[in-house]
């Protein structure tokens, strides 16, 4: 009798403990599985994330070739109006940042990628039958931008969840897809412009996005169930003074970051370079960014990520003010796209890499969301401001003013990065921070 009572009591205790553990998981967000750091499923998540970045961010990196074609042949002499198409996309591609964690607690990542798949591809198809600039605002701007935002954060989360020791490699492979996509889409669009027209360029890119994002929506599994009791908007990070400096860095950085990708092809036309060269410059800049993000990230592990952010910001400034502002030939433009590809891409990679060190691992997701939300303002206003500067010249082509504007913004970003570096690691110049 005693043994039976003891056994019954023990079973009841085990059942109660099990119930408490499940409750604690729901309320306190206990992670049940550690990152496996490999395996076919984990690497398929990387493949799916790569496809998502290739399809959406690759289009963003190739926007300049569309901008040039529209301004020259489809809607001539409407540069400022046309620049709002890309600006809407650059703004909205990060718009879900502050809300993404809440959304992810309600909807599976793969469902959000399925929505991104339909929205992004439909946007390109509808853009191909438009006849007015305002219609492109809705399709290539708003619809495509929101689709890219849903894909961005879903594809960014996956490799971070499934990898620990090899997280840098997994995330690096994923983010490098933006450069590879920009390279491919620039060539595809340029070839279509010369043969079957811009409408078919949009349709072909739409079909590519449909296929790639379909892969993402199938393979981007979650490692663990979503967290519970997530606030719609978490503002804890905005109480962190260091993060406010980083938020400012991201804010002004995006005012300048997309100006080269938007204006290099049209500036090449201004220099009377041929169409192949115009597409090539944009494509090679994307390819160099592919290399720059990985190589600068690798160097940052040894030199210090905060230090590399300062160095890259200063070098991006030099590339603008000393090279692009004085460029008069194809050779000087080649020099600019190589320098900017390395240091401009490296700058964005470094100010992203330091987010964890500023907010801590526990706030990585919310900190990343807020940091990239800061990109919305520069994405929306950066290119229209640059276009207005270009059109302010007596001949309507004041490119030097727009280049100086971007270069000064990179200098301001480098100074702010130095301030953050001093706050983080002190005044010692040669210290790894």
Automatic annotation (TrEMBL):
Keyword Membrane tagged: yes
SUPFAM superfamilies according to UniProt: MFS general substrate transporter
Q: Where are the transmembrane segments?
A: 42-62, 82-104, 111-130, 136-156, 168-188, 200-223, 243-261, 281-299, 306-327, 333-355, 367-390, 402-423
Q: How does it sit in the membrane?
A: Multi-pass membrane protein
Localization, per the record, is: Membrane
The record's annotation in Pfam families points to: MFS_1
GO MF entry, a single one:
transmembrane transporter activity
Q: Name one GO cellular component term.
A: membrane
Domain Major facilitator superfamily (MFS) profile per the UniProt entry, residue ranges:
242-433
Membrane found in the keyword field: yes
- InterPro entries in the cross-refs: MFS (IPR011701), MFS_dom (IPR020846), MFS_trans_sf (IPR036259), Proton-linked_MCT (IPR050327)
Task: Assign the protein's first listed, main location to one coarse class.
Answer: membrane
Keywords, alphabetical: Membrane, Transmembrane, Transmembrane helix
Q: Which family does it belong to?
A: Belongs to the major facilitator superfamily. Monocarboxylate porter (TC 2.A.1.13) family.
- Which PANTHER family does the annotation name? EG:103B4.3 PROTEIN-RELATED, MONOCARBOXYLATE TRANSPORTER
This chain's protein is named: Major facilitator superfamily (MFS) profile domain-containing protein
Q: Which organism is it from?
A: Circinella minor
